[in-house]
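User: Quick sanity check before I run a bigger batch. Here is a single chain. Can you write out its predicted 3D structure?
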Amino acid sequence: MTCRVLAPDIFLEAKQGSGPSDTSTADSTVPTKNFTYVGRKIKNEDELRQVRRAVKACPFHALRLRRGSKGTTVMQGDVNDAYPLPIGPHGEVFLLGYYTPKNAGASCYLIVRPKGGNVLIDAPLPDASLLERIRNLGEVSYLVFTHKDHTAFHREWFQALPGVQRVIHVDDVVQERKHFFFPYTGEVEMKIAGSKSLSLDNEGDVLLIPIPGHTPGSLAILYRNHYLFTGDSLHYSRPRGHLVSSRLHCWSDWEQQQKSLKALEEYDWLHILPGHGDPKEFENLKEGKMSLRQGLGWMEEQPRGYTSMGRFIPWLQLKTNNAGMLGKVPRWVRKGMEWVVAPVGAPGTRDRARVWEWMRYAFFAWLVLKLWLRVLA
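Assistant: Done. Predicted structure follows.
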């Protein structure tokens, strides 16, 4: 997903078979078993720069860029020097880059407020040069986490930014000091409670909106009724043409997530900035609300419940890890193992569900036939 954010004209989203409403892309050449595909070749140096950032940012090292005869100057230097990248015309919101698998390759952001008290949205990989560039944009007063998946470096940023206050919803606070998946966050300074939205501070320009579902304590952050930071709860889908949420990555409650996102209709926003997936700036409020309603309709058609980490982690390792012992397993064996452990929402889920259903019918038919033959005997 990260590559689609950084090079949107080159890397395109493939529609997934994660639910009854999903269909394959119109282009039959698109590999719909994957999340992303290469739409076309690089045309100019600007696109080459974008692709270089995308290759560098991919948390699972799934991309390779071959050095060609053109663009040799573009291929030199550190692509991370471009961060923070400004978003939109106002010069107040920046993409921080420095993606890392430790926070699942999430996009992290910086809000530069006119009166000071800048805000970090989630925590990227700590880096001295990035820290210096962030400081040059003004003092950071808050580090707000959209949810617990993106807290991997909260201690490092707390130590690097004196006086910063970390903010997280209390339902996503990890109290175990040796949690299997997430770092301990019991010492975070500001713990938001309840289901009502509230201002981050007295300025009133940053609003914290609880949107449980992806995780119990997921937050959306609304800045100046324009920018809406949605974490892993909401993003734009170019193939579908509207906002969506990832059923595959719902760790808590899909139905609750639908209710939470429906409540976003009560707020004014124009620019969706997710942790994963494509961002989207709408021309007006009506267009954004219509896109959200279309997304909610799509969500209604997806399977209920949540995705088990016990299935997701093994499936992801089988799909992306080519090192060590897994790298020695024959490809056809890995594909079979992927098929067996794939969680709801994974590519090919519908096909797997049909096969399991057929196998159940076949088993019961065999059982009835066997009993009937015993009766006749």
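The longest strand covers residues 140-144.

User: Great, the batch can go ahead then.
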